Amino acid sequence: MTTHFYTSSSLDGFIATDEHSLDWLLTQDVDQDGPMAYTGFERNIGALAMGSSTYEWVMRHEEGRWGYTQPTWVFTHRELDLPAGADVRLTQDDVRTVHSRMVEAAGGKDLWVVGGGDLAGQFADAGVLDEVWVQYAPVTLGSGAPLLPRRLDLELLEVARNRNFLCGRYRVARDGQA
Ligand SMILES: NC(=O)c1ccc[n+]([C@@H]2O[C@H](COP(=O)([O-])OP(=O)(O)OC[C@H]3O[C@@H](n4cnc5c(N)ncnc54)[C@H](OP(=O)(O)O)[C@@H]3O)[C@@H](O)[C@H]2O)c1
Fold first, then answer.
1. Where does the record place the Bacterial bifunctional deaminase-reductase C-terminal domain (predicted)?
2. Could you say which of 25, 45, 51, 93 would form a disulfide bridge with 119 (CB–CB 3.0 to 4.6 Å)?
3. What are the tens digits of pLDDT across the range 109-161?
């Protein structure tokens, strides 16, 4: 069981604009069945975690429909509306506790920290983030929501080109081991 942070990023390390727009990303050419793309990645995911900005973006973008079938934990200090019939719960519990619940719910499959970057950092702080996958779009934004605002050492495991994207998969080093 592996815990992944899988995301797209601008070349200068932002995953959304300051206004939480992904327009710069959604206009890019990608083969969803190609190298390191979403379809193959998502197949082995058994549970999701995300912060409230990401959750609110998904809800706005999908006009209230929920596209994920996996159990999902949304980190927030607020009472947000939940999509009807979806397996989504709000939490402000400790990341390690939530991670254990995700492992139980995932039935042996992997876990996906959808974002944002600081939440992925909290999973890394807790010692439960194993891999970081980044699809770099050929765009710079100058500012925005940061990719992973931590000092982490990573080992490059895999690289690929998927149409407009430069894709990398990295292992998070633990206890000083690269
Ligand atoms: N490029 C991509 O592929 C990609 C991937 C994922 C996300 N995104 C976008 O990137 C942006 C990320 O936004 P963001 O940086 O604000 O991060 P976020 O993680 O989506 O949301 C941050 C918010 O989550 C809540 N939160 C975080 N940690 C918490 C904890 N331990 N306990 C309780 N609540 C916690 C807090 O809000 P409250 O407590 O106030 O609710 C915090 O302000 C979004 O626009 C999203 O759509 C892009």
1. 70-149
2. 51
3. 999 999 999 999 999 999 999 999 999 999 999 999 999 999 999 999 999 99
The C-alpha atoms of residue 46 and residue 111 are separated, in whole angstroms, by 6
Please tell me the chain's helix, strand, coil percentages from 3-state DSSP, rounded to the nearest 5: 20, 35, 45
Domain residue limits at 34 = 3-172
From the list 112, 101, 102, the residue with the least C-alpha distance to 40 is: 112
Mean of the per-residue pLDDT values of the chain: 96
User: Do 12 and 120 form a contact (C-beta atoms < 8 A)?
Assistant: no
178 falls within a domain = no
- pLDDT tens-digit series, residues 60-70: 998 878 999 99
